[in-house]
Amino acid sequence: MTWLVTGGAGYIGAHVVRAFGDVGLRTVVVDDLSSGHAQFVPDDVPLVRGPIGDTALVRQVLAEHQVTGVVHVAGFKYAGVSVERPLHTYEQNVTGTLSVLEAMAAEGVDAIVFSSSAATYGTPHTDLVTEETPTSPESPYGESKLIGEWLLRDQARAVGLRHTSLRYFNVVGSGYPDVCDTSPHNLFPLVLDALVAGRTPRINGVDYDTPDGTCVRDYIHVADLAVSHVAAARRLEAGEPLEPVYNLGSGDGVSVRQIMTAMADVTGIRFEPETGPRRPGDPARIVASGDLAARDLDWQMRHSLEDMVRSAWDARRAAADADAESHDPTA
After folding, report:
1. pLDDT of the residue at 283
2. Catalytic one among 90, 141, 168, 219?
3. Cβ–Cβ contacts within 10 Å for residue 160, how many?
């Protein structure tokens, strides 16, 4: 039995691939490396370079590797940028998902775990988001992820596709020193890059109705996230029932200022963050309950905030050392 992980050379996808390997499940990766890194994929995992929008390529991979299920992680994941590039976002996330489902149907693969997003909720009017919270996405990215869920739902009605979608918020940290978050838009790499470069990190908005005035968000460790992807895949493989949607949430958020304090403590770089005005559309608090996923998907917060920051910092330094070595003519 082999599982295809689309986007398996990316930050989240690579952790999913390794989590599968940790329990002895084979995987194959399809990734166009537009934001992923070939070196993130273990040497014993086949990496097929190409876009998921190439249905023929996906079909070929499914057939040649005797794939029994798909973990669909590949996508364009930048909510803010999606507002400026809506057509690109829909092409990558909607047309790409359609291509994967077409290939699966053609090759008789009937199980999929979909990497969705809490962006499907938009700005919820509740302190704790559950799977029953109404969806109201506020960006093309959030909309594209919700459409992806609809595609799975409708394909299930049509051909019996077995599926589940995992919605999550801010994924941080690292489970391996050679895999780090290289996104130019995510908070952790932005702060760590600023500290390495001698710049002062910035907080956008310090006057929210929260305990310290800064936004409160759900931050979850990427390795914990990966474990639940594997749990979902194994239940689908065993024919066990799953809910159509699960939130992978902490149940108790962390503020941006708390993140900054933890960054200073872990890195040993003392700083007072710069402050600026709120960004339009940033709600004061978004935190989700993970109770349903805890029941079905072995979901739990195994890592503290310090663990998240320290693992991200260690991976960031390891990446910098590797980059320096690769450019050292004497190495």
Report:
1. 77
2. 141
3. 8
Determine if the pTM surpasses 0.90.
yes
Q: Which residue's entry shows tokens 């936004």? A: 215
The structure tokens listed for 182 are 């290289």
CA distance 25 to 227: 12
Q: What is the mean pLDDT of each run of 10 residues along the chain (331 residues)?
A: 97 98 98 96 98 98 98 92 93 98 98 96 89 94 97 98 96 95 91 94 93 94 98 97 97 94 96 89 85 97 96 90 59 49
Domains of the chain: 2-173+219-248 (3.40.50.720), 187-217+251-287+303-321 (3.90.25.10)
Provide the token pair at 59: 């079909």
Query: Among this protein's residues, is 141 annotated catalytic?
Result: yes
Indicate the residue type of 269.
I
Pairing of strands 216-217, 254-255: antiparallel
Concatenated DSSP letters of 231-259: HHHHHHHTT----SEEEE--SS-EEHHHH
